[in-house]
Amino acid sequence: MSGTLGTMRARDFDRRLSREFRKRFGRCATRVPGGRTEEQERRHEIAELAESVAEEHCPGERTEPECIARAKRITISFGAYGEAFDGMLEWKQDRFHIFCNLDRLGQSTSPRARFTLAHELGHYYIDEHRRALASGRVAPHLSLCEYECALLAEQEADHFAAHLLMPAARFRAAARTVPVGVEGARRLADRFGTSLTASAIRYVALDLAPCAVIKWDCHGYAWKHLSSSAFRGPFRKTFEAPKDLAEDSPTRRAISRQQPPETGYFQAGTVASAWFPGIERGEWQDAVLVEEALPLGRHGVLTLLYRV
Ligand SMILES: [Zn+2]
Q1: 194 C-alpha to center of ligand 1: Å?
Q2: pTM of the shown model
Q3: Structural domains in the chain, sorted by start
Q4: Å from CA of 24 to ligand 1 middle
Q5: Cα(29) to centroid of ligand 1, in Å?
Q6: Cβ burial 160-193 (10 Å sphere, 16+ → b, else e)
Q7: Confidence of residue 178 (pLDDT cuts 50, 70, 90)
Q8: Cα angle: 116, vertex 300, 249; to 5 degrees
Q9: E-assigned strand segments in the chain
């Protein structure tokens, strides 16, 4: 199974879903009561669905995607399937089956494997995804999980997975007991059985403290998430070329594969103008920030910025 085939199948699936999405919401996002756009409303619905599944199957404890799959009579194969995909949901002989690719995910209980199972459960629980697969109109869907794929269907399944594994109320309560930054994200990751990346994104999404998380891969800048209440206006755009960052900054050091200290990550003080082109050096908004950069091996580098 080649990587190209995997991408083609995922695109085909996504095109069909995008058509259904447009049919339901129209080409332009418009506002719905409550101040949300329809796209935000859709994401809100998916989050509520995932959190209700977590509450039904794993109330008050760590979410176990394998238990949920078992309860829904979805079988799972853990195997070595090369590099084409992280997970796959297949509809065959009137049953759903999940393939989980340990070549890319490590152990079957690793945070990335758990996220992948939760992501595939997203394709099962989100009506449009499940119907498209069960109708036989699309080939078995190959997934790249944990925010590695920009396709709509993949983003929706990642969004479902994040809420299934880290329900808002539980995550918020746990986050209050840890410091902001890599140390806190590590403790949350341990508690919820998720990766540090997924935990940091959830922390930012819940707007628990002024915090930004920026991902770099082998091509350079990949994506970012900014806590909404703190990073507005000139704080929305960040420098995206590593060459625009200070040479001795934690991020530049991590990208250039320098050996990190014993903590496993680089840390230093910085200022907003070093990261946000809309902020002039020395102006009143040029706040002091902490910058932490964590090397993620083949998954690149994760930068966390937060106010002191
Ligand atoms: Zn997927």
Answers
A1: 17
A2: 0.84
A3: 3-165 (no CATH), 208-307 (3.30.450)
A4: 21
A5: 23
A6: bbbbbbbbeebbeebbeebebbbebbbbbbebbb
A7: very high
A8: 140
A9: 31-32, 36-37, 75-79, 87-92, 95-101, 141-143, 211-217, 220-226, 266-271, 288-295, 301-307
35 CA to centre of ligand 1 in angstroms: 29
As a whole number of angstroms, the distance between CA 120 and CA 87 comes to 7
Name residue, tokens 């329809």: 38
**How many angstroms does the Cα of residue 32 sit away from the middle of ligand 1?**
28
**Residue 21 predicted with pLDDT over 60:** no
Find the 152 Cα to ligand 1 centroid distance in Å: 9
Q: Could you report the per-residue pLDDT of 163-177, keeping only the tens digit for each?
A: 999 999 999 999 999
pLDDT over 70 (residue 129): yes
- 116 CA to middle of ligand 1, Å? 8
Length of the chain: 308
